[in-house]
DNA sequence: ACCTGAACACCGTTCAAGT
DNA sequence: ACCTGAACACCGTTCAAGT
């Protein structure tokens, strides 16, 4: 009897998890950036669950996005960890390589770049994930700056904004890879530039 | 009697024009980027007109935005005309100065940077305005490239995307002037860089 | 413990009815 | 010729009712 009392909820949980997975599968396909946007109700409908079910699993769109992106976010963070161990001479290209991956990641789903820019009081899970990415970017940037590969007058949040901006462009035109790569090239060249032009310290 | 027949519609038109102006006044204030977003119905309510009235004057949000921005857009285009006459040595700084103004202009109202990026079949008036800006930017860019002030491997639509991207950041954080100026600095330094790094011609 | 689906407040947009 | 405001189809979100 004790086992039965355990079994029943376990089956329920299995059912619940199946619902969760079906929602994620539908959302992964429907939110993918080339496929245009879709309402959350429509996601629920396609997944064959009630609207309420979707909203209990994922209280808002951000939560759903975070779940969709979770694994790749983690992979990106561990990759950053690895790149921090690279020889000092490669600190610059390590940063640039990682930023290129980051742009792809952020641009994968609609609306993520906007979350990246908003340094909101991180209540949502997606904000937390963005914060982890921030940390990784900051470490890679600092190292690249210390080795002289990247201009010293660039703050971490400025780098994040630059990445968010380019990710947003990719979000708007997901099929124009060459275009986005060109923007990245310009930006990276701008990062390499040593700053002879003085920026007013008071403005910081 | 002939005069009366003319007078009556003229009064109507005056009334209509007053309505139009009240809508614009409300929208100008409510759509200004620090003031957050507002629904079109709410604009109509605040202007004291019916929803239908608003939608006949401005068939969609873009039309309303275009009307709001029209004068400044024109000013920007004539300014570009003037800057094209500047000595060749100043062609680079002329471009950079103008781009800085453009960012302020595009970021003034929510959603304009997205329109700038979308090279849609220009049905809306706002698209037409963006196209005029495109033309001006292209001319200034070409001249700056010919004088060697700006890297030659940059296409006009790539420049527009870069500007749109930075405008979008400003749109997201309208009160962070120093931040946005830093991004512009990086971008402009990237534009100045001559391209020793070869970009694959096949990708273009 | 989990799910359903009607319901709510809102959005942009349309259109019959008025003057 | 111009305006009004109810109406429509939609959105994200909630919640009473079910199993």
From TrEMBL, chains A, B:
InterPro entries: Homeodomain-like_sf, HTH-type_TetR-like_transc_reg, HTH_TetR, Tet_transcr_reg_TetR-rel_C_sf, TetR_SbtR-like_C
Residue ranges of the annotated DNA-binding region, renumbered to this chain: 39-58
HTH tetR-type domain span: 17-76
PROSITE patterns documented for this protein: HTH_TETR_2
Keywords: DNA-binding, Transcription, Transcription regulation
Organism superkingdom: Bacteria
A Pfam entry, by short name: TetR_C_43
Protein name: TetR/AcrR family transcriptional regulator
The species this protein was found in: Frankia umida
């Amino acid at each position: 009897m004790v086992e039965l009392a355990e079994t029943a909820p376990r089956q329920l949980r299995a059912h619940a998890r199946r619902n969760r997975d079906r929602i994620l599968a539908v959302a992964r396909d429907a939110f993918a950036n080339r496929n245009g946007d879709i309402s959350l109700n429509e996601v629920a409908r396609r997944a064959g669950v009630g609207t309420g079910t979707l909203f209990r699993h994922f209280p808002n769109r951000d939560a759903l996005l975070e779940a969709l992106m979770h694994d790749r976010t983690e992979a990106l963070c561990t990759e950053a960890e690895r790149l921090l161990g690279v020889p000092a001479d490669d600190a610059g290209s390590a940063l640039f390589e990682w930023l290129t991956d980051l742009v792809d990641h952020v641009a994968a789903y609609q609306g993520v770049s906007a979350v990246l820019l908003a340094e909101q009081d991180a209540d949502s899970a997606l904000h937390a994930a963005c914060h982890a990415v921030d940390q990784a970017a900051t470490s890679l940037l600092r190292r690249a700056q210390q080795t002289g590969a990247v201009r010293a007058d660039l703050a971490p949040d400025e780098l994040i904004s630059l990445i968010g901006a380019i990710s947003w462009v990719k979000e708007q035109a997901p099929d124009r890879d060459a275009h986005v790569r060109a923007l990245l090239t310009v930006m990276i060249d701008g990062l390499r530039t040593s700053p002879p032009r003085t920026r007013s310290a008071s403005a910081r």
